[in-house]
Structures
1.
Amino acid sequence: MKSGSYVSNERSKGAIRSGRKSINTFNIFANVVMIFTILSIVIPLYFLVITAFKSYGEAYKVPPTFVPENPTLEGFEIIAKFGADVGKALFNSLVVSFGVTSSALLFSTMAGFSFVIHRYKLKEVLFVAIILKYILPEAMLVVPWYYLIIKLGLIDNLFAIIAPNLVGAWTIFFTRSYIMQIPRDYIDAARVDGANDYQIFFRIIFPLIKPAIGVATVMNFLWSWNYFLWPLIAINSKDKFTLPLVVATVRYVYGGGGEMLPHLGALAASTLVYILPIVILYVFTQKWIVEAFTLSGIKR
């Protein structure tokens, strides 16, 4: 018995050592992957920042300089000189992002609430249609959107960018899933007290889903900030361009087949202005962003 017990203990120790070795190997591999991932993000960002402050000649210097030899605002000045009003574009992007985010939160959250508490005909069909809108690529929707904004006289108007996104399919799906986790007893008790749907939604449901509201706010703002294809079609006037269009315009002006190569300093400067608000937003809301992907498990 003692001999058998000894062999069993040795096997257990061997299995533990083998398990620890596997865990250590996995940790080393995970750390190496993490380091390469961080470097792949930090290095391009660093070169973006320093290129924004390089002169035209220094930006093309080989080998590249890792610190600007003569820091200059030439890139920012060239953007202003050629009419790409970055300040105005920043304001337009903020208008679009706040408009889309606020409307999507209000209408989509109420729609998600309706899907949970009401029973009506074609409810499942309507929900499938919303999911399809979420799945379909934007390129397939621009033709009917364009037809509608022509009929409404909204061409070259910032509201033309906001209108197709007043209600967000992802936000409906996300808030519906969150509201379904709230005990139905809360709603039934409110109905017994005489509360209508609006009172139940704003006084009971809305405070209970604040974490979901925070997540939906961040995600809608990020998505609307990056709109490019639809604003490119709906907007004609340069003073109504959003930041993604300005970045594309700067690239076109300096790299559109002329004799000059693109001005990398101007491109980097416009891109820096474009991503800076997103970086600031991410710093303050990274917890909600991580939670968004954790809870939904869906990437748009």
2.
Amino acid sequence: MTVFLLRRTGLLVVSLAVASVVVFALLRLLPGDVAATIGGINYSPAQLAALRADLGLDRPLPMQYLSWIGGVVHGDFGRSQLNGTSVSAELGRKLEVSGPLVIGAIAVSLSLAVPLGTWAAMRNRTVAGGALSALSQLGIAIPGLWLALLLITVFAVELKWLPAQGFPVDGWAHPGQAIRSLVLPCLALGLTEGAVLLRFVRSAVLGVLHADFLRTARSKGLTRGQALLRHGFRNAALPVVSILGLQVATLLVGGVVVETVFTLPGVGNMLVADVGNRDLVKVQGEMLLLVAAITIIGFLVDIAHRLIDPRLGAAR
């Protein structure tokens, strides 16, 4: 296990280094000029050249990369080229919204998918199991935007239980208000992802229900539920953990639609606005943060696989 962890950690570091080079290089291929964005039509060519020099855009690209990545290693993602604000500080404020949003959505997804997926598998080929399977298929087909608008209409407009949009200006200074603001966005994301995960939980549990080891466990006097709880879930968890890792990555990148609908000041909204403004330093920091998060999730999923089934190590 120690060798495996060292090897995977080394691969993680190399992956992040390559990702930083790719992010930096790709953003330089985008059309437009941040100096022209700042100066507009009022700046003369000489003023634009002076502004580029002031922003460091006239230096060779390798020098720009080394300066940027050196700061990132020390936790400094640079400063916005448009307004001079600290990218690290702004990312921290946005993560205070996006982080709990993703965690809440995953909690909703798991609490929906695991019990219902198991229940549907144990009642396979029954009317109730078929109905739940069809309902999960319907949940997958529902667009996230439509579901978000439906939740707003029911719980915010009609029942007035929860706020329709926005997030407290003072952030988590008042936790109750902040949590109330995230309930509907978490449901909008979690219900859709939960429907997807439910299908995988059902398939995984179905795969182990008729396995030899489960029949052996039942021959020792265990009920089907007891055998599944003691021996089945561990074997069914491998594909579910993989899909769960993909869902976390999807929510990190794809939560921008829900953040827009609920006007949440999260990382997704920030990224879209900064790409439009061509604020390269901020976009670099945001892209690298997302890529790093997704890469680390893959790293954790690999470790989880080894912990769940140590035989994977022997197979390699």
3.
Amino acid sequence: MTEAGKSTGCTARKRTWRAVVAAHGTNPPDQVASGIPPTGTHPADARHSRIALRVNGSDHVLDVDHRATLLDALRERLDLTGSKKGCDHGQCGACTVLVDGRRANSCLLLAVAQDGAEVTTVEGLADDDGSLHPLQEAFLEHDAFQCGYCTPGQLCSALGVLREAAAGHPSHVTDPAVAASTGPVELSAEEIRERLSGNLCRCGAYNGIVDAVSDVCARSAPAKSTVPSTTPGPAPSPVPRPDVIV
């Protein structure tokens, strides 16, 4: 990350923190109900810190042990158990969530270091009315999961893949000529496999997962006309990118 990016991220987190504190002089009602002491009453403790997180669109203030991971905070403090603890070593990807829009292994992140961050878990992908995210629908349609243990991490990771490719971020298999450009990267099957290689599926449902991500990527692209035009037309509209499906 560039120094400018670090500065922007830090400033955004501070704004989030101030907004949450201003809105909640004490902890939000759900945190009070769970027994978390209100702001300012936690005894001095060198092993705990108070942090603010925005998770799936809701603000939370938590007193966390400095040794607690983000995954543990999500599962044990916020009861968001969709993200799974698989290997607990950042090798299987079952715990993948989006932190400030970028995918990350939550088992490797200390919760205290995420103060002010915006986190999206698999519970936050569907709309408030229960409508599934296009990726969730595609996973169902293509039978992209079997036991389903890896599915929450796969879904969050796939959403990150679509955004990264749309932003032009190259992968290890991206053609150097394409990587040198500033445009979006086309998601071939090889690109999808490479970009999702950090998420393991013990059941071997990889083909269905690749098909589902390819399907969502194709649906976000404009339909191509099969009739060749003989007269000059208006300039083409910008190509919609997968990030519009969030």
